[in-house]
Structures are given as C-alpha cells and as structure tokens.
Design a protein that fits this description.
Blueprint (H helix, E strand, L loop, with lengths): L1 E5 L3 H9 L5 E3 L2 H7 L3 H11 L4 E4 L5 H14 L3 E6 L2 H12 L4 E6 L2 H10 L3 E4 L1 H6 L4 H15 L4 E4 L5 H10 L3 E4 L1 H8 L2 H19 L1
Parallel strand pairs: 1-2, 1-8, 2-3, 3-4, 4-5, 5-6, 6-7, 7-8
Helix pairs in contact: 4-5, 6-8, 8-9
Bound molecules: erythose-4-phosphate.
Length: 215
C-alpha cells in the first residue's frame, strides 16, 4: 500500500519523508492557498523533494481550459499528476490528457458510479473522499469497498486513492480492503504511530535498565 501525504507544506513533507512514510503527495486548491506562495513554485519544490507522484489540481471547470492548465502543470516535473474534479468536462479532460501520456487523478468522488466513469475515461488514480461522506452521515469506507470490488471485477488499471482521511481507522479499513493508496494528513500519520502500551513499555524498559545499571 502506498502512502501519500495530503499537504502542500514542504516542511511537513520533509518531516514525513524522514520517517519513510511518503510515496507521493496530494495537494488541492485549499491546501495550496494556506501556503501563500505561487502555486507552480510550491509544486516544483515538492517534486524536487519527492520522486513519487505529486497531484496538482486544475482550477478551470471547462475542458479546453482544464487540458491547457493540465499541460502547464505537467511541464513542471515528470512526476506531476494532474488532478481533475469529477464532472463531464473533467472526464473529457482526463481522456485528452491520458491520450497525451499525462497522468490524472480524478478528485471529489463520492459514489462508486463516479469512480466507474473516471476509470472508463482512463484516469490513473481516483480519489474517493471518505471523511466528507462520513460528515453527512454516509459511510465513506463502504463506498471505497464498492469501488475496489467494481475495479477488481473488470480489471481496471485505475488506482484507488483513499482521500479525505480524518483518522487512523480510515487507514486501517483502507489497508484491510486492499486500497492501492491513501493520502494522509501528517497529523494522522503521527496519530498512527502511538499506542499507550508502547509508551508504558518504553518507560518500564528505561526504568528497569537504569535500576540495573546502578547495581
Ligand atoms: C486529497 O486529494 C483531497 O484533496 C483531500 O484528501 C481532501 O481532504 P478533506 O476532505 O479533509 O479536505
């Protein structure tokens, strides 16, 4: 299973990468806006730091513009993946960019049928948003399970990238279901490392060691 980090903050990316947790990066317009720096500079710097896929999202909603923006983004580095929102124009853009050898990530996917259409259009990755579905009283992980079942049934090459991850249990379920990728905020990665019994065990080993050394 690949781990992407869901941030546009270079320091967080470096910290997570030091720990061996970063196979790729996802950004979106909201994450980019938090950084207060030019979009292309941010993506260029992330791509230098991480050799894996780095998703950069188009902001147009019209397919010719999406394709133009996508081509500009793809010129920044060979590991850029163009993120396209799920909509009819988006699917046209995915088909065109795919035909030109440019990788795509279809974002804002909230149903198995949207994921099926993204795969038909030739998307490299599809991003089902689990947290935002949970927020409206739906079951985000159940939707991921349906997407995986459909893709397996028809051997689609599109990778399932679990997005809008809010806590460690989203990751555990995604891993059990065999999702290809999850994109994770750094805070959630850190939450996944800790367990009270680990902390207790470390303290006990240290206390015993120190007592033994005094003999
Ligand atoms: C990643 O590709 C998405 O943009 C991101 O996971 C959205 O997460 P959010 O629902 O917490 O904003």
């Amino acid at each position: 299973m690949k781990f992407f980090i869901d941030t546009a903050n270079l320091e967080e990316i470096k910290q997570a990468n030091l720990r061996g947790w970063v196979d790729g990066v996802t950004t979106n317009p909201s994450l980019i806006a938090k950084e207060n720096r030019p979009f292309h500079d941010i993506i260029r710097e992330i791509c230098k730091e991480i050799p894996g896929p780095v998703s950069a999202e188009v902001i147009s909603l019209q397919h010719e513009e999406m394709v133009r923006e996508g081509k500009e983004l793809a010129k920044i580095a060979s590991n850029v993946v163009v993120k396209i929102p799920m909509c009819e124009d988006g699917m046209i853009a995915v088909k065109k960019l795919t035909a030109e050898g440019i990788k795509t990530n279809v974002t804002l996917v909230f149903s198995p049928l949207q994921a099926l259409l993204a795969a038909k259009a030739g998307a490299t990755m599809v991003s089902p948003f689990v947290g935002r579905l949970d927020d409206i009283g739906s079951d985000g992980m159940a939707m991921v399970s349906q997407v995986i079942q459909i893709y397996d049934q028809y051997d689609f090459a599109t990778e399932v990238l679990v997005a809008s991850v809010r806590g460690p249990m989203h990751l555990q379920f995604a891993a059990e279901m065999g999702a290809d990728i999850a994109t994770i905020p750094f805070k959630v990665m850190q939450q996944m490392t800790s367990h009270p019994l680990t902390d207790k065990g470390i303290k006990q080993f240290m206390d015993d060691w120190n007592k033994g050394q005094k003999k």
